[in-house]
Amino acid sequence: MPKIESGIAIPQVFLDGPVDRDLIRKCLEKAEAQSFSSAWVQETIVSPFSILEPVSLLAYAAALTDDLRLGSSVLLTTLRNPVQLAKALSSIDHLCAGRLDVGIGTGGHISESIFGYSTERRIRRF
C-alpha cells in the first residue's frame, strides 16, 4: 500500500505582533519528530500583517531541519529576477541536501498590480 505523506505550512503570517522565530523553530522540530514529510511556504506580496518572505524563510527552515522536504507552494517568478531566484533556490537546495521542492507561478491577486505588470505581461514574462 502506498505511504500517505503529509506536510505542514511553516508559520509565516503573524497577526498580533512581531515575527516569532521560536514558534517557527518549534513547529519545524515537532513536524520532524512527528514524521511529517514536508514543510511549505507561500508568497504573499501585500498584507496588512507581518509576513515573512518565502525564500528567506526556506533558508531559515533548511538550517533548522534535517529530514523534512521544504517547498514553496507558489513563488511569483514574474516579480523576481529569474537568475537571482534560481541562484537563491539552488543555494538553499545545496544547503539542505536536495530537500527543496519549488512551485512557481504568475500570481494574479489584484494587489500585485501595484508593481505595474498587467496580466498579459505577467504571462509573457513567465
What does this protein look like?
The protein has helices at residues 21-33, 54-64, 82-95, 119-125; strands at 7-9, 13-14, 38-41, 50-51, 69-76, 100-105. The protein is globular, with a radius of gyration of 16 Å. Strand 5, helix 3 (82-95) and strand 6 form a beta-alpha-beta unit. Helix 2 (54-64) packs parallel to helix 3. It has 126 residues and is of the alpha/beta class. The model has no long low-confidence stretch (mean pLDDT 88). The protein has one domain: TIM Barrel (Alpha-Beta Barrel).
- The CATH homologous superfamily is named Luciferase-like domain
* Mean pLDDT metric: 88
The count of helical stretches stands at 4
Q: Could you describe the largest sheet, including whether it forms a barrel?
A: 4 strands, parallel
CATH uppermost class: Alpha Beta
CATH architecture: Alpha-Beta Barrel
Number of separate structural domains: 1
CATH topology-level name: TIM Barrel
SSE string, helices as H and strands as E:
EEHEEHEHEH
Strand order of the largest sheet: 1-3-5-6
Low-confidence stretches: none
| Structural class by SSE content | alpha/beta
Total strand segments: 6
Helix content: 25-40%
* Rg from Cα: 16 Å
What distance lies between the first and last C-alpha atoms, to the nearest angstrom? Answer: 38 Å
Beta-strand residue percentage: 15-25%
Shape field: globular
Question: How are the SSEs ordered, and which strands pair?
Answer:
Elements: E1 7-9, E2 13-14, H1 21-33, E3 38-41, E4 50-51, H2 54-64, E5 69-76, H3 82-95, E6 100-105, H4 119-125
Parallel strand pairs: 1-3, 3-5, 5-6
Antiparallel strand pairs: 2-4
